[in-house]
C-alpha cells in the first residue's frame, strides 16, 4: 500500500511517495573535520584556559521532521596517544535541536581547566563529541567525534595545603613532681588551606634509651588557614610510668601519623624540655633555659646531667660550708655522669652537694644512708 502526498507550489505538481513501513530516521549529526572550521587559538598554562575554540555541527540524512531532537555537544580531552577514557571539560545543550541539512558554527568558546577536578599533568588532545547523550536517532553513530589539531600541555597547579605547627606549650608541675598540670598547647596553621582533623601527641622519652617513650594523644579538630587553636589538656600523672632517677625529654607533636596533607611535614614537633625529671629528689621538670640538673640516689651516688659540654666543679660540703671532697673539677661532655660519694662521707650525716659551672651553680642537701 502506498501513500501519496500532493503539494502545489507555483502551479507545479510535486509528488512525494513513501512506502508503508519505511523507518524514517533523524538526521545524521557530526562535527566538521575541516581544519579551517575546527581549531582553538591558544592554551595558557598559567591561567589554565583554552581560548578561541571554534567548530561546526553538521546535520544531514533522511528525515520526515524539520529538526532533530535536543542533544548535547561535549568537548573532551584525551591523553595524547590514547583513544579511550575521555575527560569531559565542557557541555553545550542544543535545547531546540538542529535543523536538517544545516551547519551550525560555534565560535570563540573558552574552557577553564582549573574547574576540572583531579586533572593530572600531561599532554592532551581536545575533541568534540556531537550528540554525546545519544538522544538523536542517527543513520550513522560512528562519525560523531573529531579531534582538534594541536597539543595542550597541562601542568596541574600545586595543591593548596595546610601547615600545622606547635606554636607554644605551657605546663606546671605539682609539688611532688608527679603530675603535669595546667597543660596547654597552641597549634597554628601557617598554610593556605584548612587542615583536616588529626591528633596531637605529648611524648616523654628516656634520654638514655632513645626510641623508648610514653605517649599520650588527643584528637584535634580542623584548623582554618592562618589560624591558631589552643588546646587545654587533662593533668598527666607520671608517678607510675617513670623512673625518678632518669632524665626525660618532653616533646609535643602535631599530626604524628601524617593524616593531614601539609606543605611542610618537618616542623610538626616542638621540644618542650630535654631535661625533665620526675620524683621528689629531682630539682624539677625542665624548661628551655635549663642547662644542667643534679639528683641523688639511695646508694649515695650523685647523678649529673649536662645539656652541653661544661667545665664543672662538683664538691661535697659539710653543713657549715666547709669542703669535704671535690668529686670532679674539669670539662665534661654533654650527657649523664655518675659519681660515688661513699668514700667522702660518713653514714647518718647530712651534707651539701654543690655544682658550679661558669654560668650557674646549685646546691642540694644530701643525707648519707646507714
Question: Brief overview, please?
Answer:
The chain is mainly beta. The chain has no helices and 26 strands. Helix content is 0%, strand content 51%.
Low-confidence stretches: 1-24, 278-291
The helix tally amounts to: 0
Please outline the major beta sheet: 5 strands, antiparallel
Quick check: average pLDDT?
Answer: 79
| Helix/strand class | mainly beta
- Number of DSSP E strands: 26
> SSE order, as H and E?
EEEEEEEEEEEEEEEEEEEEEEEEEE
Radius of gyration: 41 Å
Oligomer: single chain
Amount of beta strand: over 45%
Sum up the overall morphology in one term.
Answer: rod-shaped
N→C terminal distance: 130 Å
Helix content: under 10%
Written account of the structure:
The chain has 370 residues and is mainly β. The chain is built from no helices and 26 strands. Strands 6, 7, 9, 10 and 11 form a 5-stranded antiparallel β-sheet that branches. Strands 3, 4, 5 and 8 form a 4-stranded antiparallel β-sheet that branches. Strands 12, 13, 16 and 17 form a 4-stranded antiparallel β-sheet that branches. A hairpin with a 4-residue loop joins strand 4 and strand 5. It is rod-shaped.
Produce the secondary structure layout.
Blueprint lengths: L1 E8 L2 E8 L8 E4 L10 E3 L4 E12 L10 E9 L7 E8 L7 E11 L9 E9 L14 E3 L4 E3 L9 E10 L5 E11 L8 E9 L6 E8 L6 E6 L3 E2 L10 E7 L14 E8 L15 E5 L4 E6 L3 E8 L5 E10 L2 E6 L9 E7 L4 E7 L3
Antiparallel strand pairs: 1-2, 3-5, 4-5, 5-8, 6-7, 6-9, 9-10, 9-11, 12-13, 13-16, 13-17, 14-15, 14-18, 18-19, 20-21, 21-24, 22-23, 22-25, 25-26
